[in-house]
Amino acid sequence: MQRIRAVLESSLAPESLELVDESHLHEGHPGARAGGGHYDLTIVAECFRDKSAVARHRLVYAALAAEMGPEIHALSIKAYAPDEI
After folding, report:
1. What are the residue ranges spanned by the domains of the chain?
2. pTM of the predicted model over 0.90
3. What b-and-e string marks burial along 60-75, b requiring 16 or more CB atoms within 10 Å of the CB?
4. Is residue 2 helix, strand or coil?
């Protein structure tokens, strides 16, 4: 989880970032058995300003491309610009 946090901080420079590991809620799920975690992300960053929800999610997924699969099986994303909070 620290790796995910570090990648997001260096790539997107968030003002705030909350990452919750919800893997324990998915025990027995095929992705959990393979080692990928289930995470809930709330992130606030200037780079999301004037972007659609889809564009914001694409920025997050692009930043985490190397972690998708081995580290992350599922990711719930709530992404905001600073003035939206």
Report:
1. 2-13+36-84
2. no
3. beebbeebeeebbbbb
4. helix
Report the distance separating Cα 14 and Cα 47, nearest Å: 8
As a whole number of angstroms, the distance between CA 47 and CA 25 comes to 31
Amino acid at 60: V
CATH number of the 2-13+36-84 domain: 3.30.300.90
User: Which tokens belong to 27?
Assistant: 């025990």
pLDDT in tens, 44-67: 999 999 999 999 999 999 999 999
User: Which residue pairs from 13-20 have beta carbons closer than 8 angstroms and sit at least 24 positions apart in sequence?
Assistant: 13/45, 13/46, 13/47, 14/43, 14/44, 14/45, 15/44, 15/45, 15/46, 15/82, 16/42, 16/43, 16/44, 16/85, 17/41, 17/42, 17/43, 17/44, 18/42, 18/43
Written as six digits, the tokens of 2 are 């620290």
What sign has the CA pseudo-torsion 46, 49, 52, 55?
A: negative
